[in-house]
Amino acid sequence: MNIHGREFDWNHIRAFLAVVEEGSLSGAARVLGQTQPTLSRQIGNLEEALNASLFIRGTRAARLTDTGAALFEQVQTMADAATQISRIAKGRNQTLEGTIRIAATDAMVSYVLPQCLDTLRRNHPGVDVELVPSNALADLTRHEADIAVRHVRPSQPDLIARQIGEFDVSLFASERYLTALDGDLTSETVANADFIGFEHRDRLVRQIRDLGLDVSPANFKIVAHSGVVLYELAAAGLGIALLPSVVATRHFGLTRVLPDLGEMRLPIWLVSHRDVQTNMRIRLCYDLLANALKDYLKADG
């Protein structure tokens, strides 16, 4: 299918891309900040312009027809090219004013970055910060963020990463919950306690067993899919959680469980795309964040 040379409303193309990438009209509407009926009309207008159906009707998920798949292949290439142009242009922008998007987990955004961003806001008031809290990895190649704070090293060759340090991760609970446990606080007592999980029970079971505590999936009575919720549940006395020590103690006053148990290390990587590293504003924020995160971790030691 060749769409070049035809007259299109590119808002309709953008709507089509969003529906395919999000998997539904409702998901695309949230991403684009539009209503679902408006998005549906744009898709209908595009189908009318092409005189072809792009989606299979009657299914909840957005399933493409053969024509829709062919269109997606071409317009995705065009969208990637537009993103590349935007990145290069941003990379050559040398002003100290404008907006920087920083992606990190919801817990990192809530408890660590506010202190780290204080220096930036005081010293460079012309730089605005847009925080993107998500536990999914932001796609820097698609310009979902300028800088990302991650716990895994990126593998993409176009990304630049610097390891800032590590979180010490241990078992924590509220003093109220630990006091309510029957008997002395021993490995056997704790192994029978309630735990609060984060996303994947099986992975946590392996990690906690590696620390020297014999637990099973049955220990995890509550599982959260948000780091912020995980901390709040532990602070509310609902069980034991595996948490970074600096946040658990500094922000919530939680008590470390069985200090003689081992610790985990959770690396902190600061990541940016190679094309925007020449942007003075982004480079400034990248270096400032790196130093502020190091100071944050140093204060814990």
UniProtKB/TrEMBL annotation:
<dbReference type="GO" id="GO:0043565">
    <property type="term" value="F:sequence-specific DNA binding"/>
</dbReference>
<comment type="similarity">
    <text>Belongs to the LysR transcriptional regulatory family.</text>
</comment>
<protein>
    <submittedName>
        <fullName>LysR family transcriptional regulator</fullName>
    </submittedName>
</protein>
<keyword id="KW-0804">Transcription</keyword>
<dbReference type="InterPro" id="IPR005119">
    <property type="entry name" value="LysR_subst-bd"/>
</dbReference>
<feature type="domain" description="HTH lysR-type">
    <location>
        <begin position="8"/>
        <end position="65"/>
    </location>
</feature>
<dbReference type="GO" id="GO:0003700">
    <property type="term" value="F:DNA-binding transcription factor activity"/>
</dbReference>
<dbReference type="InterPro" id="IPR036388">
    <property type="entry name" value="WH-like_DNA-bd_sf"/>
</dbReference>
<dbReference type="InterPro" id="IPR036390">
    <property type="entry name" value="WH_DNA-bd_sf"/>
</dbReference>
<dbReference type="InterPro" id="IPR058163">
    <property type="entry name" value="LysR-type_TF_proteobact-type"/>
</dbReference>
<dbReference type="GO" id="GO:0006351">
    <property type="term" value="P:DNA-templated transcription"/>
</dbReference>
<dbReference type="Pfam" id="PF00126">
    <property type="entry name" value="HTH_1"/>
</dbReference>
<keyword id="KW-0805">Transcription regulation</keyword>
<dbReference type="Pfam" id="PF03466">
    <property type="entry name" value="LysR_substrate"/>
</dbReference>
<dbReference type="InterPro" id="IPR000847">
    <property type="entry name" value="LysR_HTH_N"/>
</dbReference>
<keyword id="KW-0238">DNA-binding</keyword>
